[in-house]
Amino acid sequence: MVHGYRTETTPPATGGHAQRAAQRPGRRPDWRETARTYALVPLRLFLGVTFTYAGLDKLADSAFLHASGTGSIGELMRSVRDSAALPALVDLALKNPSGFGYAIALGELAVGIGTLLGLFGRLAALGGAAISLSLWLTVSWQTTPYYYGNDLPYMFCWVPLMLTGAPLWSLDALIRRRRHEQKGS
After folding, report:
1. Would you say the C-alpha torsion 159, 162, 163, 168 has a positive or negative sign?
2. Tens digits of per-residue pLDDT, 145-177?
3. Helix %, strand %, coil % for the chain, to 5?
4. How far apart are CA 126 and CA 143, in angstroms?
């Protein structure tokens, strides 16, 4: 039995393999090209919705943004201080727990909205990874086994989006296309 291998000499462009293949006369993209083009869209939607929800949830929770009391960011930081990988980071948060709570909530909201809209996609992904890393090194560090905690997987989920940005269905792509059209005019 003979198996054929298709090789392509054209590297994938920002517009995507499937779009270029569709532009070739008589050639439709196969499912692998389409999957490659849209592979990160579900991840971007999931992370964008999750971080937007997390930010809004924190801002809407009247107890979370307090320096002390049940369910507050201050109480949470005090409870994880001795088990955190970076207790100095927890100490920094404990200097102003309410301010830290607002910073986390607004940061999550900005990352989520930026990711959903595809605006400054790489910067939003870097922010998401930084938030996830800081939460892993403080709040979920003591989770045993480590894979039960969600902050470490979230951090690694941001990596592909840091590398690619938001090339499809995004404000970044729209801005890039408009710049390209203006240069061509």
Report:
1. positive
2. 888 999 999 999 999 999 999 999 999 999 999
3. 70, 0, 30
4. 24
Residues 6+ apart with CB under 8 A from 91: 81
Which one-letter amino acid corresponds to residue 119?
Answer: L
Contact 39, 46 (CB under 8 A): no
Distance CA 184, CA 68 (A): 58
Of the chain, the end-to-end C-alpha distance in Å amounts to 53
Q: In this predicted model, what pLDDT tens digit does every residue of 49-82 receive, in sequence order?
A: 999 999 999 999 989 999 999 999 999 999 999 9
Cα→Cα distances 49→102, 109, 166, 171, Å: 19, 9, 15, 17
21 touches 34 (CB < 8 A): no
AA identity, residue 40: L
Q: Are 33 and 21 in contact (CB under 8 A)?
A: yes
65 Cβ contact partners less than 8 Å away, ≥ 6 residues apart: 58, 59, 72, 73, 98, 101, 102, 105
CA dihedral angle for residue 112, residue 118, residue 121, residue 126, rounded to 10 degrees:
10
Q: What is the mean predicted confidence (pLDDT) over 32-42?
A: 91
